[in-house]
Amino acid sequence: MKKILLATVAMAALAAPAAAADLAARPTYTKAPVLAPVPTWTGFYIGAMGGYATVEDNGPDGGLAGGTIGYNWQQGAVVFGLEADAAWSSIKATGVIPGFLGTFETKIQDTGSVRGRIGYAFGPTLLYATGGFAWAENKLSNTFLGATVSDSKFHTGWTVGAGAEWMFAPQWSLKGEYLYKSLSSENYFANNIPSGTLNLHTVQVGVNYHF
User: Fold this and answer.
1) In 105-164, which ranges are continuous DSSP H helix?
2) Which range marks the domain in which residue 52 is found?
3) What tens digit of pLDDT does each residue of 150-192 get?
4) Could you tell me where the DSSP H helices lie in 26-70?
5) Residue 102 domain-assigned (yes or no)
6) Which of 6, 40, 147, 204 lies 20 to 30 Å from 21, alpha-carbon distance?
7) What is the number of helices (H) and of strands (E) in the chain?
8) Number of domains in the chain
9) What Cα–Cα distance (Å) separates residue 134 from each residue in 85, 110, 148, 175, 179?
10) Is residue 29 part of a domain?
11) Rg of the chain over CA atoms, in angstroms?
């Protein structure tokens, strides 16, 4: 019996290192980390925007608010896009009519643009340049001895600018941009009063939802 017990203990002692070596040789597996999805700028988007604008040479200034719609294409880190926006505005100035007992007010009632965009994406951040067609509806009012006459004209021209956009959630982005708009002169009140060229500096921010 003692011989049998000794033999059993000896076999167990020999088997233990082999079993440990076998366990050490087996590969260990770890769960791969879950990576956050890389944001893509491709697709349609709509949004709301607002800002402030001023006309050169001590012209009208004021706020604006409106909406945006656009589409992006992304190739690697390069992003191309088309965007249109329109906004109601309170960009206005008032003054005295020289030589008359009256006052005047000029007010850009609404403005907008249709622009191309090209930019470079750094993950969720997009830096871009933009340019295209711009327009504004301007109203000129003259008041004399309590009576007011008004005339409205559409001014058209071009715009260029630059901006940055940040994808802060899977389908939401926040942007800020600067636009320079140069709009043609128009003649008011039966072509008797020319307006001169309207050159606007606009700073605006917005939030977009991407489909």
Assistant:
1) none
2) 43-210
3) 999 999 999 999 999 999 999 999 999 999 999 999 999 888 8
4) none
5) yes
6) 6
7) 1, 10
8) 1
9) 10, 11, 29, 19, 10
10) no
11) 34
